[in-house]
Amino acid sequence: MTDTAPKIIPLADLRYASRVPAIPATLAAPTGLLSDSRGRPLRDLRISVTDRCNFRCSYCMPREVFDKNHAFLPQSSLLSFEEITRLAKIFVAHGVEKIRLTGGEPLLRKNLERLIEMLARLQTPAGQPLDITLTTNGSLLAKKARALKDAGLQRITVSLDALDDAIFRRMNDVDFPVADVLRGIEAAQAVGLAPVKINMVVKRGTNEHEIVSMARHFRHSGAVLRFIEYMDVGASNGWRMDEVLPSAQVVEQLNAEFPLTALAASAPGETAARWRYADGAGEIGVISSVTQAFCGDCNRARLSTEGKLFLCLFASQGHDLRALLRGNYADDQISAAIAPVWQARSDHYSELRAALPPDASLPDGAFKRVEMSYIGG
Ligand code: SAM
Ligand code: SF4
Ligand code: SF4
User: Fold this and answer.
1) Residue 289 CA: which ligand is closest?
2) Looking at the chain, which terminus has fewer C-beta neighbours within 10 angstroms, N or C?
């Protein structure tokens, strides 16, 4: 190639804006007490291990967008398990206590158990083990549950949007049968991944008639079913407010069938409002990301598959930590570069959206948001 020839950069590497955090001149040691500009600590790190998925849920990876022409990240862009663990250790020193592996479909990442083993060896500054969990579509879970548990995974969240096979196949849009996911859930319970949480995204007009049957199925099972409001993540799912079924209506429907009692939040920053069945059949949760913003105590950071740090699910710009990892910097330098990024954080997208009139659109170009399959849920 001559000097004048255009430099070809893979499209996938350019998809979202990012900047490389600066290494401060003085390296402050981590205190575990980082706080952002709104006083929120850093406790929860969600790590996306792949941007690929074997499902094409229309609310996340609509097949018209994520088709055979879609440029997924090349293998060389992905953080290695060693790189992920190195960063995780730095984040733990800054206060992270909980790590969630996600994607795309995390169980598609080869030898994921090895990463879990590596992460399970990390400890908080107080010498406590980390709370490690994983969110999966369940398609490969029956095969992998034992290995995940043996590697040190403690609990798991399985996404399941319907029990009705036809509705489920339509929603995953790859004709995947519900029976296989149910087998995965049973396998997870059998090996002692506990509690198993079940995430159901509720879309008005698509699966709201499944709410009560899902509840009936998982009552008395020990699994905690959580109903998630359909969110306007990314830029490709064609989100419309009229397809959101407010959680208050979900609770109303359920309460009419199986009386519910409210429970207190289990931890600060908890996304789900918790309820229990009055007859003792177990617990459910509702995640009202649209109708009840919970930015006030949001303590979650997200690390993309290629090592970009995002401070909000709706962020439009990441912070390129891979550049630091591969730039020959020492851990204390990377750690000192991450601290001011969190300290400057002011993101509170859901609160901003909630403050707008229902029919208002957000300013053009204000949010070229990352896709959920890229950043993880
Ligand atoms: N593939 C895995 C799965 O489906 O569990 C992990 C990644 S997925 C992006 C993580 C979670 O995000 C899933 O529970 C999924 O249902 C949820 N999700 C994806 N798009 C969503 C949307 N538009 N609104 C609400 N939840 C969404
Ligand atoms: Fe895949 Fe999960 Fe997105 Fe569905 S929600 S397309 S399973 S990443
Ligand atoms: Fe956290 Fe952003 Fe979601 Fe608010 S909108 S709860 S800041 S991820």
Assistant:
1) 3
2) N
Is 17 a domain residue? Answer: no
The pLDDT of residue 237 is above 80: no
Ligand 3 centroid–CA 345 distance in Å is 11
pLDDT in tens, 94-120: 999 999 999 999 999 999 999 999 999
Sequence-ordered list of residues with C-beta below 8 angstroms from that of 270, at least 6 positions apart, any chain: none
Looking at residue 3, what is its pLDDT? 39
Please say whether the beta carbons of 57 and 117 come within 8 A.
no
- The structural domain count of the chain equals 1
> In ligand 3, which atom is closest to the CA atom of 347?
7
The model's pTM: 0.93
Nearest ligand to the CA atom of 58: 2
Q: Which residues span the domain enclosing 311?
A: 44-375
Q: What is the bridge-based pairing of β-strands 156-159 and 131-136?
A: parallel
Q: How far is Cα 371 from Cα 63, in angstroms, rounded to an integer?
A: 14
339 falls within a domain: yes
Task: Report the CATH number that the domain containing residue 171 is assigned in CATH.
Answer: 3.20.20.70
